[in-house]
Amino acid sequence: MKKFSEEKLKEVERLKARYPERQAPLLMILHMACDEFGYLDDEAYSYISELSGVPKSKVYSVATFYSMYNQKPYGRYHLQLCKNVSCMLAGADDIVKYICDKLNISPGETTPDNRFTLSLVECLGSCGKAPAMIINKEYYENLDIEKVDKILAGLK
Ligand code: FES
Hints:
By secondary structure, the chain is of the alpha+beta class.
């Protein structure tokens, strides 16, 4: 059964005491759950609901609204490349093709060694520095093929 570490449980209690509105710390608790469990599934939604006092249906609807909460197991490095207008106009299509060819996967897939998962996501809020991508929690902006190549080579 999924359960937070003692340290995370203390943090949840601290957040609940700080925010009288039950739903207020939900986004933070969802982040903690992704860190702890790797991704969110039905069992995780039940656990978070019980822990936060927020109805499970609300936990699910919030978690699935945002692309930052993993809904399935991903590779060690989760590449989330923006597919919105500013990034596409700045060359994101070429970067998607390059990453797919280099890793031999399509968007939504994970490499057989479980190192990389590629997802295409909505705007990352870096339109002024497009094309943009997040790998795990780190932002990479003003991407071009050369930069992507260096980034991928640097991931151990
Ligand atoms: S359109 Fe890509 S970051 Fe906004």
